[in-house]
Amino acid sequence: MKVPTASILLGILSLSTCASAYLDYNELDARDHTNSLLVERGTLEIPFQHSLRSFLVEAADAHRRALDDHEDLLDARDNNLVDYNLQTFLNGVLKLQSGGLITTWQQTSPDWTAKDVQKKFMPVNPPPRTCKLHLSRHTGPVVSSLKTVQNKLVVLSCWEAGKTEAGIVTKPTRADEVELNFTILINSKGAGGRLSWVAPKSWTPAEAQEILLYGTGKAHGTTCIFRLGRRDGAIRDNLQTVEPHTLVFLVCVNPAFKS
Questions:
Q1: Using an 8 Å Cβ cutoff, are 59 and 8 in contact?
Q2: Domain of 188?
Q3: What is the pTM of this model?
């Protein structure tokens, strides 16, 4: 039996004043008896029940399951996107993005290429001669798409006709080191950062804040954690499993620090 979902809540409210009500469904066609619960154009298919109370209870359960299924679909859709942080360069010069921001957090299709990113986030006319997606810096390693950039700093570097494209620069790292990008937050406010920084994989948040905040007068009394990709991203105790070119948020708290 299909019932508009909006009617379910009204029925549940009516149950308090009609608890003894009874509907005889014995004359209903047996085809209305089904074990499936389907959502279709604002209706729910409810299995056959012998009483109004049982029917409304089952309807409420079906409505709840339908909402859960809808949330699962939304989660699955989001899981098909990739999260990354973006900077844009034109002819080797940093270009501010919307709102005058240097770096922005983005969520797009992992299949996007440099051309797709340029059209969306750095539209210019005429279009640049060439665009590439780099990691960490506009001279960093090149990727052909966004498939492998989760939580990383992606740099869109475009060059117009007649401009000489910069070459790729490789930063040497030892086996126990990793090239990362750091943004520092103290009491939820920006306190600087380090881009394209080669750090020991063994670094803990305490060790990182002693180095990255050294000389600022802000290190003493500060406690920090690592978060990946954004200020509320996954927490890490060290950098051992953090992929190269990730943007790491050093999220710190210092009760004595006033911004």
A1: yes
A2: 177-253
A3: 0.68
